[in-house]
Amino acid sequence: MLSRPGRYRRSLAVASLGVLSVSLLFAQSDNSRRPRNRPSLEELDRNQDGQLQLDEIPGQMRPIFRRADTNKDGVVTRREIQATRQSALQNGQRRPNSKFDEFRNVAYVEEGHERQALDVYVPKGIQGKAPVVVWIHGGGWQNGSKDRCPILYLLDQGYVVASINYRLSGHAVFPAQMHDCKAAIRFLKANADKYHIDSNRVGVWGSSAGGHLVALLGTTGDAPETEGDLGVTAGDGSVQAVCDFYGPTDFLAMDHGEVKSKLRHDAPGSPEARLLGGVPSQSIEQAKAASPLTYISSSDPPFLIYHGDKDPVVPVEQSEVLEEQLEKAGVEVEMITVEGGEHGPFHTSEIQKDVLEFFNDVLKSE
Asked: What pLDDT digit, counting tens, does each position of 348-358 carry?
């Protein structure tokens, strides 16, 4: 059982986070590879001189600018951006003393789509079986990748870690994404001996579109009609702990947030319309089928939710209604509202510690 309260909402000020994430500012400048909603150098470079000056940087990102300006000349070049970004990836994802075995690009659907693949990371020298935490990436269901998994720090804490790809909305509409995620979970359980996984202790963690998918995994564990028939069909895709970072939950209310959105969600061509195969308000049954709220029951596993109260992409109300409905059903849930926080990514040491405590409480308690 959780030592945390059944329903406990906390607020976390952005100032207490230090820097939100180096990747938010210093994203790849190659627009064909760059995640959406992360500004490139070209987008920030107002005078188009090929480098960034302090007055071109949004206020909340200026501490990152000062850190990247290694020669302290008042400008940040592309080379400094790349060096800062590489350092962040190395420090944040693979701690130097981490030792683990990697199983990359493992197909979880035999002869399936190229996106139906996952990576598994297993601590070396592991004795017996350990809980697994599965990372599900974001990207508006239309881009993103399992690569550069941001939760590898859990390996040093006695967890197996997996990171999965799933078919994007350009490949197939919902419920393909949910079916892929469940197939990946079933595959990991079926191969528990190989990867030293305790199949009864499965956690999931995702952000944005990935947050939506992990919330679905959490609320559909007792809904066999949502499993699909891909890959390993024995067993089920149920999970025992859910960490949801600012995921959408109700596609019919995405345009009703207090904070003005950067997107019009109920419109042709929106990420939600591409996922559902139609504008949400004109695809009501499909929108309900894709909502984690539809499936909530008292048997759902504990949830930890993070969301910024100034999120201009996914309104914070999306997480608030999920918290309220879970609490009403008697599910253990904790929501942390990041004061002044926008659309993540929130991978700081303080938040990593909090998430670790959550998974320990749920997956390692006797």
From this structure: 899 999 999 99
- Rounded to an integer, the average pLDDT of 132-154 is 96
Q: Identity (one letter) of the amino acid at 233?
A: T
Q: Tell me the mean pLDDT in the region 37-61.
A: 67
Whether 85 and 108 map to the same domain: the answer is no
Long-range contacts of 170-173 (CB under 8 A, 24+ apart): 170/142, 170/274, 171/113, 171/115, 173/274, 173/275, 173/276, 173/277
Tally of helices (H runs) and strands (E runs) in the chain = 11, 11
Closest residue by Cα to residue 292 from 222, 212, 185: 212
How many whole angstroms separate alpha carbon 166 and alpha carbon 142? 10
Whether the predicted pLDDT of 62 surpasses 80: no
pTM of the model: 0.78
Of 31, 57, 91, which marks where a domain is finished?
91
Helix (H) / strand (E) containing 204: strand 197-207
| Number of folded domains that form the chain | 2
> For 252-267, how does the pLDDT look when each residue is reduced to its tens digit (9 = 90+)?
999 998 898 888 999 9
- Nearest Cα to Cα of residue 162 among 191, 136, 143, 139: 136
pLDDT value at 226 more than 50: yes
Q: Give yes or no: residues 59 and 201 share one domain.
A: no
Does residue 174 sit in the same domain as residue 288? yes
Range of the domain at 75: 20-91
The DSSP line for 297-327 is: -TTPPPEEEEEETT-SSS-THHHHHHHHHHH
Q: How far is Cα 139 from Cα 309, in angstroms, rounded to an integer?
A: 20
Q: How far apart are CA 320 and CA 340, in angstroms?
A: 16
Q: Examine residue 1 and state whether it is found in any structural domain, yes or no.
A: no
CA angle (50 as vertex; 47, 53 as ends), nearest 5: 60
